[in-house]
Amino acid sequence: MDWFKEYKELVFSHEINVENVNKAIKIKFENLPSTLFKYRQINDNSINNLEQDTIWLSDPRNFNDPYDCSFTTETELNPESSNFIISIAQEAGLLDLLNDDKIEEVQNSLSPLVTLMEHSYPNNPEHGKKIGRALASVMKQRGANLVSEISEGMKQAFKVCSFSEDPSSVLMWSHYAQYHQGFCIAYDFKELGCEDIRTRLMCPTIYSEKLFDASNSFGNKNSVNNILFLNQAALMKSKAWSYEKEWRLVFGNGTLTKEMPYKVPKPKFIILGTKISEKNKERITSICESKNIQVKQMLMSESAFELNF
After folding, report:
1. pLDDT recorded at residue 77
2. How far apart are CA 83 and CA 33, in angstroms?
3. Which of 138, 180, 152, 159 is nearest to 276 (CA)?
4. Bridge partners for 272 per DSSP
5. DSSP-assigned letters across all residues of 23-48
6. Are 105 and 135 in contact (CB under 8 A)?
7. CA distance 287 to 50
8. How far apart are CA 167 and CA 296, in angstroms?
C-alpha cells in the first residue's frame, strides 16, 4: 500500500497545510474501493439503518478490540531516563551529596534511579539499591497508568464506523453478522465524490505490531502542529485483525460528542447470510424491494471453505 505511505506523510506530518491535505485526500480517493461492505446482525438498529440509509457511528470504547483507538506515549515519569532522574535529584538537593564522578555515573547508568539511591546511602549502598528499585517500580507503574488514562480519555474523541473490502469472510460473517444469520450491505462511497466529508474521512486501517506512538504530541516532546496527527490512533490495529481488510469512517478531535446515526449512500445491494431465517429473509427482502435495492444470497462452497454470492 505504497500510496497510503504517501498519504500518511502528507496528512499526518508534524506540520500541516491545506495544500498537502487536499493532495492526500485526492490520493486516497483514487484508491478507495468502489464497494465497501458492512456486516450486520438483524435487530431494530440495523433495520432502521437499512430503511433510512444510515450507519451508526460508535464510541471505540464499546468495540470488541480493547486496543481500538489506543496509543502509547513516553511520560516524564521514566526511571530509566538519566536526564529526568538528574533533574529531580537536583531539585531535591540530592546532587549536593555527590561528587562529579558519582553524578557522571548516575548520568551514564542504565538504571539511573537505582544508582542515584545507591550513592545516596554511602554507608549502606545495598539498602539504597533496594529503595531505588522500589521507587523505579512505582514510577514505572504510575507512568503506565498515566498513559492508559490519557489513551482511554482520548478514545471518546473518536466516533467510528467500520467497513470491509471483503464480503466473503467466514470469520466476519460469524463475528459481526450473527453467525451467518444476518446480512451484509454493499456501499459505494466513491459516488459521493472526492470533496464529500464521508470520503474525506474514510481511511484504510493500518495493521501493525505496535501501538501508535503519540510521544511527539504530549509533554516536553510536543513537536506536532497538526490536529489530524492523533487520528492515526483510530486507524492502527494489531496485525491479528488484518484479515478484515478494514476501512474506517472516522470523526476525530471531538467533532461528534456522542454516538449517532449518519447518512450514507443508498446500498448498491444486500447479501443475505447462509443461515438467515425465512422470516428475516422476507423482512430484509421486503425493505429492499420497496427501496429498489438488489438482494443477493451468500452460498457455501461444496468443495472448499469458501463463501460465494
Report:
1. 66
2. 49
3. 180
4. 183, 297
5. HHHHHHHHTS-S-EEEEE--SHHHHH
6. no
7. 8
8. 12
- Cβ atoms of 245 and 166 closer than 8 Å: yes
The amino acid sitting at 104 is: E
185 CB-near residues (< 8 Å, 6+ apart): 37, 38, 40, 50, 267, 270, 271
- Number of H-type helices and E-type strands within the chain: 10, 15
β-pairing verdict for 246-251 and 299-300: unpaired
Handedness of CA 17, 19, 25, 31 (dihedral sign): negative
Question: Where do we find the cell 487520528?
Answer: 231
Amino acid at 18: V
pLDDT one digit per residue (tens) for the chain, 309 residues: 689 888 888 888 888 888 888 898 999 999 999 999 999 999 999 999 999 999 999 998 888 888 888 877 776 667 777 887 888 778 888 788 788 888 888 888 888 888 888 888 888 889 888 888 888 888 777 777 666 676 677 788 899 999 999 999 999 999 999 999 999 999 999 999 999 999 999 999 989 998 888 777 665 566 677 778 788 888 989 999 999 999 999 998 888 889 999 999 999 999 999 999 999 999 999 999 999 999 999 999 989 999 999
Question: Distance (Å, rounded) from C-alpha 135 to C-alpha 132?
Answer: 5
CA distance 187 to 298: 17
Q: Which amino acid is at 192?
A: L
**DSSP code for 79:** T
Tell me the residue length of the chain.
309
And the C-alpha cell for 94? Answer: 540530592
